């Protein structure tokens, strides 16, 4: 299995985490190199990561890659995707992804010297992140979203998102005790440590 992406991408990290947790061998093609980027663009019209190739299967969406892995390799100790919690978890994933996408946008614009107050759209994006994080804080029950105490896709998404925001210093995540506790609780997991951005 070939996984195209960068070490720092939070979306790629989710896949790397799942593969390590489930014992699935994979070859990471580093798309931060010229050759990796060239290969990605030849194979994936979106030019985005993660991109997965295995056997005759080619997938360029992180959620679809996750579904493929869980359906073909089993969900092991993770909370299954199906069940009474499905729609709530889907909402959580959508919210977390939206916060992450907006944070990534702010990060890259900031690198170009463009601040959130440069345009109403950017200001709205920054406010949307705050709104989502407030929602996430209300939805968390301790260090999980559901009373089963299991890690599911929403916890995986939140950890990779918060840790990326902390790594990139995009938002003052460490000022929020609930997020600090969440990161400290899940962080010692060997697979999270092995996939940490550098």
UniProtKB/TrEMBL annotation:
Name used for this protein in its record: Glutathione S-transferase family protein
Organism: Leptospira levettii
Domain GST N-terminal, residue spans: 1-77
Stored InterPro entries: Glutathione_S-Trfase_N, GST_Omega/HSP26, Thioredoxin-like_sf
Coiled coil regions, renumbered to chain: none
Superkingdom of this protein's organism: Bacteria
Pfam family name, one: GST_N_3
SUPFAM superfamilies, A to Z: Thioredoxin-like
